[in-house]
Design goal:
There is one protein chain. This protein is mainly α. It folds into 2 domains: 1-31, no CATH class; 44-82, no CATH class. It contains 4 helices and no strands. The chain has helices spanning 3-12, 17-29, 49-66, 68-77. The model has no long low-confidence stretch (mean pLDDT 82).
Length: 82
């Protein structure tokens, strides 16, 4: 966060010093560390690309049959919603 935004936030909340103090303490207690060197993206999610494809198809069909996206798609196509 840049300095001018922080000043604005502090000024906007100067009547509630407890909020400012609590937020400062929370931020001081936070610690975020991650490794930027190693690659985190997986090329495959399950055992193989084929298994990934099957899983995606299953999830899509499950959503089609039970989820709101499926209901919306069925309505657009004029299909029964039973």
């Amino acid at each position: 966060m840049n300095y001018s935004k922080m000043r604005t936030i502090l000024k906007d909340h100067e009547r509630v010093p407890l909020v400012i103090d609590s937020t400062k303490k929370l931020l001081d207690d936070c610690d975020l560390q991650f490794d930027r060197e190693s690659l985190k993206n997986k090329k495959i999610y399950s055992a193989s690309r084929y298994d990934d494809k099957l899983l995606l198809e299953k999830l899509a069909w499950d959503e089609w049959h039970t989820g709101t996206a499926g209901k919306t798609m069925k309505q657009r196509k004029g299909l029964s919603m039973n």
